[in-house]
Task: inverse folding
């Protein structure tokens, strides 16, 4: 027994630090992986099967399927009146929102990571949208947002009629200053959806705060000794150290934006309102495939620019 224990101990000692970290990583993701195999793999194959079939609901319960090839995909892409437009708009919204959400989250995290009175309360306020983002509370917030935006819009319209100053006036000023039209359109679109963007930044702010608190304080001491300015310290120390979490937040933001897009609502309506499960499955596969391509592209680009301290 003692010999066997020594042999096992010797084998255990042969594991390199990289192998030990790999084992810890596999153990960490094993609950998710088991859940994926048990609950998602079967659903994934059923969705693919439905997308290639015409599903008929039987009156006595259950369903029958008839293989029709790619007809559901062709209908979604070339015949459906709304899917293409909603799909393109959703992708554009994701590409517009993601950079702003990331920079906004990092900026707020930097502010919340500094020392000031009431810091815990302010952090809780920024995290409240997550706690209040479900059920009746979410609907109430949505209604309140619509009322606020409608009231603000009405007031702005009345004021513009009296003073002659409206959003076109300010846009003309920025145009005269030489700002590109695409940049102005980007800013105007962001302002129109500022509430949704702030509400979608809560998780990212928490992640960035955790990243900022994990930066070794000795690095800041060295930068101070070397006489680095705040600007230099941010770009030479803070930004590289939190860059791995930028990739995490970008992936999370893309997925979160897609889940809340109108494309998902359209697929849901096709399945559970019109009972066209084949078309709904085809829409889901098309949109998921495009989002996966975006994730792979963005992930590949950011991985090359990410700095890993260890």
Result:
């Amino acid at each position: 027994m003692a010999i066997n224990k020594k042999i096992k101990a010797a084998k255990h000692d042969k594991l390199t630090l990289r192998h030990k970290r790999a084992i810890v990583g596999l153990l960490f993701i094993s609950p998710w992986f088991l859940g994926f195999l048990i609950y998602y793999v079967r659903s994934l194959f059923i969705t693919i099967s439905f997308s290639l079939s015409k599903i008929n609901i039987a009156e006595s319960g259950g369903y029958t399927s008839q293989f029709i090839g790619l007809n559901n995909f062709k209908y979604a892409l070339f015949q459906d009146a709304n899917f293409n437009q909603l799909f393109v708009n959703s992708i554009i919204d994701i590409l517009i929102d993601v950079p702003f959400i990331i920079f906004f989250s990092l900026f707020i995290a930097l502010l919340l990571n500094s020392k000031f009175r009431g810091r815990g309360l302010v952090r809780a306020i920024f995290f409240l949208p997550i706690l209040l983002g479900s059920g009746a509370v979410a609907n109430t917030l949505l209604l309140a947002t619509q009322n606020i935006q409608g009231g603000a819009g009405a007031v702005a319209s009345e004021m513009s009629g009296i003073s002659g100053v409206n959003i076109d006036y300010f846009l003309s000023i920025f145009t005269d200053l030489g700002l590109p039209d695409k940049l102005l359109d980007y800013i105007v679109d962001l302002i129109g959806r500022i509430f949704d963007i702030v509400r979608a930044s809560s998780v990212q702010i928490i992640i960035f705060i955790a990243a900022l608190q994990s930066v070794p304080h000795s690095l800041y001491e060295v930068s101070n000794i070397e006489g680095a300015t705040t600007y230099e310290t941010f770009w030479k120390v803070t930004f590289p150290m939190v860059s791995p979490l930028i990739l995490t937040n970008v992936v999370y933001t893309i997925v979160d934006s897609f889940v809340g897009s109108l494309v998902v609502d359209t697929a849901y309506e096709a399945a559970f309102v019109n009972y066209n499960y084949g078309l709904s499955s085809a829409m889901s596969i098309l949109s998921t495939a495009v989002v996966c391509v975006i994730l792979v592209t963005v992930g590949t680009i950011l991985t090359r620019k990410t700095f890993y301290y260890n």
